[in-house]
Write a structure and sequence with these properties.
Blueprint lengths: L3 H4 L3 H8 L20 E9 L6 E4 L5 H18 L5 E2 L8 E6 L19 E6 L2 E6 L2 H14 L6 H4 L9 E3 L3 E4 L6 E5 L24 H13 L4 E3 L8 H10 L2 E2 L13 H4 L2 H4 L12 H15 L5 E3 L18 H23 L6 E5 L3 H7 L9 E6 L20 E6 L16 H14 L4 E5 L7 H12 L1 H4 L5 H14 L3 H14 L8 H17 L11 H28 L4 H31 L5 H25 L24 H25 L1
Parallel strand pairs: 2-3, 2-4, 4-6, 9-10, 9-16, 10-11, 12-13, 13-14, 14-15, 15-16
Antiparallel strand pairs: 1-7, 5-6, 5-8
């Protein structure tokens, strides 16, 4: 119910609204400030010295709307120091923020056109309050998150650390904002390859693959997705699963989904590793050919366990890890395709039978690796009510997209990597450029693969910028791509939005960053070169004078490459630090974490490599070790810089893990470890020589 008087416009308000420029999803144009842009010196007072607006939510509202109301109350408290009450109806003479869903709640006539749309929403101020109305419950929640950002909350605050500007009096300007349906229907984040956060340690003392993750991290993941107006999440790869986390995702308004080998959310990874097969009464191997009844029972358990949640169900046939299904030797491709078709058809039919009374299930099948080849050969017959998900190469370039003749039979989507563990590992720093994202997503939208988008961000922290870019494209690709310069517009907007007075310098630093880190392997160039140089200098000290030949063209070229690369870094870092000096404290800290520190990860080993290469043709030994000491100083500086980047809640963020191992370039400490190894080997060699000649 609503009070007609609360929405009746006075003549003064009517004239005022005539002056309002109706707002649409202009954030995707990236041409104006967003965060805090609705705060005004005059206008509707939501929080004053003697009053605080109520947040009005129907008792029958969907759980995602109620959760959004809780976030909004907390947001307003962060801004003003006063927390609104959440109440079931408008109270006399009190300002209000009314959360409503068209078709479920009574709403003013201006909002009724939202009915029947997918996640559309409208925000409008009236004489004594503001209406936040969605076409469905998620649309209402997205209206809330849109409003929160416009009054000062950074949707990425869990990662940037930004706190909102304080306002004892909170007033908003007249608002008439509408967001239509999103371009991508299902869109969300995949937190893949959890290597930093598991709490248990394995026998090597590393965070255990398949360990337990504190639910506080899932809360951060889910809140971030929602504030970016995403509606699905794949929270696990190997980490232990709890219904608490899955229920939270669904209750907050996120479809719970998973990766391409997590068939029907049954957790094949845990089949033997976590004893799930035994717990579900399943005997035998995870094998369709040998144990079809058992594997089907296992999949069915996944559906039964999650049937009350909002889910998007993966279908297919792979192993219990990210590898292809192993058919019996001699199986022809035609026979394999019949098995794939049979398995997926049964998965779809079984799920529909279980959920028939409650939900209309949504399925996706990822054309990953061997599946893409089979599909492109035209020999894979798939159920028509499955979304076909096309994937990139792990480095942000799509392997393939649907052809026009395939658009009518199936709906299509994509699986895209910002993070990746494999041949293009990029867990430690962001190396996919906005320019690549623009190019690829233009092709994706043109191909009609917009039913589904899952973006691999692993543990998220490193990929905030491009996650935000992709979220904007997914909501309104038409506006984002209305001009040819989407990546540049976004990068300039991002720099203004997040770095204030340092925006111009920040933008230049990002452009330099992406010129240097134009590919995933660029972040390890110094570490690789340093390792080779340390090998040569050790050989030189051991008496191999060929290792110290300056006229070796290959070594001379490598020294010159490191020297030139270090010089480029030094100019870039000097400019970046100048920009940083113009920022406030929280802007400067995030800029350090997102731009300066990732550059230092390669700069320090690059500079160290320059010194060590120079030492290989130096003599006597004290000159060699003077240069090695200079190299070691660079690596110690990097250790100090790592410490600076490990602020709460990211303590020990760069510790050794099963991905970022002691012996892996992807470990930021790798060069320091190799220097320690060199020192230890040289010490042992000298002690051995002393012992030998003392006799």
């Amino acid at each position: 119910m609503f009070d007609k008087g609360s929405i009746r416009m006075t003549k003064r308000c009517t004239l005022l609204f005539l002056l309002i420029l109706t707002l649409t999803s202009w954030a995707q144009e990236w041409n104006a400030p967003v965060r805090g842009s609705w705060i005004a010196d005059t206008g509707l007072t939501l929080v004053g010295k003697d009053r605080v607006a109520d947040i009005v939510v129907s008792p029958d509202a969907h759980s995602c709307v109620k959760q959004a109301a809780k976030f909004l109350a907390s947001d307003i408290e962060k801004i003003t120091g006063q927390k609104p009450d959440i109440v079931p109806k408008v109270r006399n003479n009190k300002p209000f923020i009314r959360l409503a869903t068209a078709g479920s709640d009574r709403v003013p006539a201006d909002f009724r056109s939202l009915s029947g749309k997918w996640e559309a929403h409208k925000i409008q101020t009236v004489e004594n309050g503001v209406w936040l109305v969605g076409s469905n419950p998620r649309g209402t929640a997205f209206a809330v998150y849109t409003f929160s950002e416009r009054i000062g909350i950074d949707p990425l605050y869990c990662w940037t650390g930004y706190t909102p500007e304080k306002h004892e009096i909170l007033r908003v300007k007249p608002i008439d904002y509408t967001a239509g349906e999103p371009t991508f229907k299902y869109r969300g984040l995949f937190h893949d390859d959890e290597d930093t956060l598991p709490q248990e340690l394995d026998e090597r003392g590393l965070p255990q693959a398949g360990g337990t993750i504190d639910p506080a991290w899932y809360k951060r993941y889910f809140e971030t997705a929602l504030r970016l107006r995403m509606n699905q999440v794949a929270p696990y790869t190997r980490a232990k699963r709890t219904m608490e986390v899955q229920q939270m995702a669904s209750d907050w308004g996120l479809f719970y989904t998973s990766h391409h080998y997590d068939i029907l959310l049954s957790n094949p990874w845990g089949y033997s590793r976590e004893g799930l097969a035994e717990k579900r009464g399943v005997d035998g191997r995870y094998d369709w050919a040998e144990n079809r009844e058992g594997i089907t029972k296992y999949w069915k358990a996944g559906v039964e366990e999650n049937k009350d949640l909002d889910c998007i169900w993966p279908v297919g046939l792979r192993g219990t890890h990210d590898g292809h299904y192993e058919f019996p030797e001699g199986t022809t491709q035609e026979e394999k395709n019949r098995v794939f078709t049979k398995a997926m058809t049964e998965q779809v039919e079984m799920t529909k039978a279980i959920l028939s009374e409650t939900k209309n299930p949504v399925f996706h099948f990822t054309l990953y690796a061997e599946m893409l080849k089979a599909f492109q050969a035209g020999t894979l017959n798939l159920p028509e009510d499955v979304i076909l998900v096309w994937n990139d190469d792990g480095d942000g370039i799509m392997r393939a997209l649907p052809e026009p003749e395939e658009l009518g039979k199936w709906k299509h989507g994509i699986y895209y990597h910002l993070a990746y563990y494999g041949h293009t590992t990029k867990q430690t720093a962001h190396t996919i450029t906005p320019m690549r994202i623009e190019e690829q997503f233009r092709n994706i939208v043109k191909a009609g693969a917009t039913e589904y988008m899952l973006c691999n961000v692993s543990e998220m922290r490193e990929h905030t910028m491009n996650t935000r870019f992709i979220a904007g494209i997914c909501w309104d690709a038409e506006t984002a791509f209305s001009r040819e310069d989407a990546a540049d517009r976004f990068s300039r907007w991002w720099s203004r939005e997040y770095f204030g007075n340092g925006a111009d310098g920040a933008y230049s630093a990002y452009m330099d960053y992406f010129r240097i880190y134009h590919a995933h392997d660029q972040i390890w160039q110094g570490a690789r070169s340093l390792e080779r140089a340390l090998h040569d200098v050790y050989s030189r000290l051991a008496g191999d004078h060929h290792a110290g030949r300056w006229n070796d063209p290959e070594k001379q070229a490598e020294y010159n490459r490191m020297k030139t690369r270090a010089s480029v870094y030094e100019k870039t870092l000097a400019s970046a630090r100048e920009a940083q000096s113009k920022m406030n404290a929280q802007e400067a800290r995030f800029f350090y974490e997102h731009v300066i520190f990732p550059l230092l990860i390669d700069y320090r080993p690059t500079k160290a490599a320059e010194y060590v290469w120079q030492s290989t043709w130096s003599w006597p030994q004290d000159r060699i070790f003077a240069l090695i000491n200079q190299a070691e100083e660079q690596l110690q500086l990097l250790e100090d810089e790592v410490d600076q980047a490990e602020r709460p809640p990211f303590q020990d963020w760069y510790k050794d893990t099963w991905i970022r191992r002691y012996d892996s370039y992807t470990n930021v400490h790798y060069s320091n470890y190799r220097m320690q190894d060199f020192r230890e080997r040289y010490k042992q060699r000298n002690e051995s020589y002393k012992h030998r000649y003392s006799k």
